[in-house]
Amino acid sequence: MCSASAPTAKPAVRARTPTSVPGSRRRRGFTLVELLVVLVLVAIAAGLTALALRDPSAARLEQEAARLSALLEAGRAEARALGLPVRFELGSNTPGEGFRFVGLPTQLKLPQHWLNEDLQAEIDGARALRLGPEPLIGAQRITLRLGEQQVVVATDGLAPFATLTPEPAAGTP
């Protein structure tokens, strides 16, 4: 008599799943966690390398833009605190010519030169930026250029001066 639950023959092949459980005799391949850790380390190294290889003119331009934003806000704060009409004017775009704050007391010594002599600046739509004494000064923009790079420092009149992200040129994706 034959029973359906009783094995009739010995299995020819026994399936084995490779494992990396501690204490197993054989270890084949890597676990998913180990692979993910290696991928994360490679991604971090690639990111740091990309940051280290940045265009130095872009970094200098960002530094100038941050410095200009801080200087314009300092001039704006002094104009409001002292109740004086203050303007920010550019010199010519020749080397050695920088900028100046017109209307501030002479004892206030704000910088008057760019950090990089090759920097070119242009105030959009005006000859000077008006910094005060009014709390609302109107929207104003200044474009900084260094080589092929450019950045815009602007305010809407109420918010502080800040660096705007450059918009792609027309026709580029």
Automatic annotation (TrEMBL):
The keyword Chloroplast does not apply. InterPro entries: N_methyl_site, Pilin-like, T2SS_protein-GspH. The keyword Chaperone does not apply. It is a single-pass membrane protein. Its main location: membrane. Keywords: Membrane, Methylation, Transmembrane, Transmembrane helix. Residues 1-24 are annotated as: Disordered. It comes from the Bacteria. This is Prepilin-type N-terminal cleavage/methylation domain-containing protein. It comes from Pseudaquabacterium terrae.
